Amino acid sequence: MDTINMAVNMAGFKAGFANPGQWIPEIEEPVVAISLEQVDSQNYQVTIRAEVVSPVTLGGQKCEEEILRVVSVMEGLGGSCRITSLEFDAKTELFSMAVLGTFYGDVLDEHWSAGKACTVYWGGQRIGEPLSFTAWRETSDAQTPLSTALWHFRMEEVLDGKWPEVETSSAFTIQVTAGNTTDTYTGCAVTSQERILSGGHLRQIREGTATAKEAE
Predict the structure, then answer these.
(1) Calpha distance 61→170 (Å, rounded)
(2) CATH for 2-106?
(3) 0.70 exceeded by the pTM?
């Protein structure tokens, strides 16, 4: 959780570990409370909860905008995110909204990498060494709900010659299995692609969009 707390702070938020047992000062701007939601050591999976709390004077939309910024931070660390609904507490006059970020890998050492517990099939062909796969929805139009927005994805892999390189095609399907969950993204298209030579390894990063997602 230290890694996430530091990243959220660097993104400009006032953030800290959630502790309901302590006195909470008056909140005058959006803040982020971070807590451990669930640890599944058997499947090398950990879920972190990051909750944005915002005063009513800023409105509910401000809370929604800030939670999307937190989602970007957690996805940048390799997390797969799910956003909860917006809530209002009349007693404290605060809006709140949370994102649950699931990370895969060695949860005890906090070295989270989707590749350690993730299998990716790209257009029916298996990706040899995936390092991370993240997917999210976003919209710049306040009138458009996230439930109807396009999916965006980012995949990073190692190209080392052991596995044949998987080429892109039009309107292909991506299937991602992590732990006991399989997500299938359809209508996929690549929007950007780059390669980086680092530490003697050639890494490939591809980003794109998908029209739909189904979970099994």
Answers:
(1) 36
(2) 3.30.70
(3) no
